Amino acid sequence: MAHPSGEGVKPAVLVARRIFPEVLARLRQHFDVEANETDDVWSAAELARRLQGKAGVLTTGTERITAELLAATPGLKIVANMAVGYNNFDVPACTAHGVLATNTPDVLTDTTADFGFALLMATARRMAESEHFLRAGLWNRWSIDMFAGTEVHGSTLGILGMGRIGQGIARRGAHGFDMRVIYHNRSRLDAATEAACGATYVSKADLLAQADHLVLVLPYTASNHHIIGAPELAQMKPTATLINIARGGIVDDAALAQALRSGQIAAAGLDVFEGEPQVHPDLLTVPNVVLTPHIASATLATRRAMANLAADNLIACLTEGSALTPINPEVLSA
Ligand code: GLV
Hints:
The protein is of the alpha/beta class. It has helices at 21-30, 44-50, 67-71, 91-96, 109-124, 127-135, 164-176, 191-197, 204-210, 230-234, 253-262, 281-285, 300-320, 330-333; strands spanning 12-15, 32-35, 56-59, 78-81, 100-102, 156-160, 180-184, 199-201, 213-216, 241-244, 267-270, 289-291. The chain folds into two domains: 12-107 and 300-331, 3-Layer(aba) Sandwich (Rossmann fold); 109-291, NAD(P)-binding Rossmann-like Domain (Rossmann fold), CATH 3.40.50.720. It has a seven-stranded parallel β-sheet, sandwiched between helices. Strand 7, helix 8 and strand 8 form a beta-alpha-beta unit. The longest helix has 21 residues, at 300-320. The chain is globular, with a radius of gyration of 22 Å. The mean pLDDT is 97. The chain binds glyoxylic acid. Glyoxylic acid is lined by residues 61, 83-85, 108, 297. Residues 61, 83-85, 108, 297 line the site of glyoxylic acid.
């Protein structure tokens, strides 16, 4: 029975998707937790209903925190995303409602950069396409140009979006595969960081024209919507590969499927899609694309670290008014 003064009452929080039991147990030490054990994806109305009386919520990139939802959940103090990207949050609306927003940077950087590089290699060396061929029983002899791909070592690696993950991919390319690394970003890195990454700043036009392998690692924003569409694909080399580990909507998937089918570029590797988990039907039928279901940060160690960091943000915010990785820290000082 709660004390009538409210003293000793734990704040209520919602965990919107299934997470690791030990992280849930840690949250239960501090909070009255409602968890989503079935891992269903709730509608906006269901999320709003479950958020009534909650002080915090642990979300994944799937749950959208909109101005409308915030207006309907006046007790909410923190939305803790278990993702580094937070385009599922309306951050200005969070700030306007005095709701702290947090994400999970750093803990996933190297794992995600590893995956970006793996996807680049699988795409350039046609691993998925050739595996499907083998599984279909079509392999009956060795042949000189069978599944001949494009060179990775010594080629030009282009990176669009040079944050922590982009820098991780640059280091792997420059130092592991002797690649010439070029990048384009909203702002240029300082000289020491460029040197550590072995990367050279170029214009977007030069990046598109010169990259043998172009990796997209930029956040999704309204101005980045379809930043790679038909006009950009037309500027790439016909031998080039395109890798998207950033967000769906950054690439115009219909235009990309068309460019892959017509041979305007050689191949693509995609971990994220417009409207995922739906995938543009044309991408499912072109052979020269490697498709993975948004798993770039998916190692158990990294997903644990992400869940723990999101939990730590909830605990810090609701027990001492601080946060480890705030997106809108101004809410804390207000
Ligand atoms: C995954 O896409 C993330 O933003 O962490």
